[in-house]
Amino acid sequence: MFNTIAVEGAQFGDEGKGKITDYLAKKADIVVRFQGGNNAGHTVYHDGVKHALRALPSGIFTPKVINVIADGVVLNPQELIAEIDDNFPKGTKLTNLLISSRAHLILPYQIERDKMYEDMLKDKKIGTTKNGIGPTYSDKARRISLRVGDLLDKDYLKERLHNLAFFSNKELEANGYKTIDEEEVYENLLKYAEVLKPYISDTALYLNEKIIEGKKVIFEGAQGSLLDLDHGTYPYVTSSSPTSLSIPLNAGIAPNKISKVLAIMKAYMTRVGEGPMPSEVNNDFANIIREKAHEYGTVTHRPRRVGYLDLPILRYTCLLSGVSDIALTLFDVLREIEDLKVVVAYSYNGIETKNIPSNPKEYAQYKPIYKEFKTIPYYDTKKIKSFDDFPNEAKEYLNFIQKELGAPISIISLGPNPEDTLLLKELI
Ligand code: IMP
Question: What CATH number is attached to the domain comprising 115?
Answer without folding.
Answer: 1.10.300.10
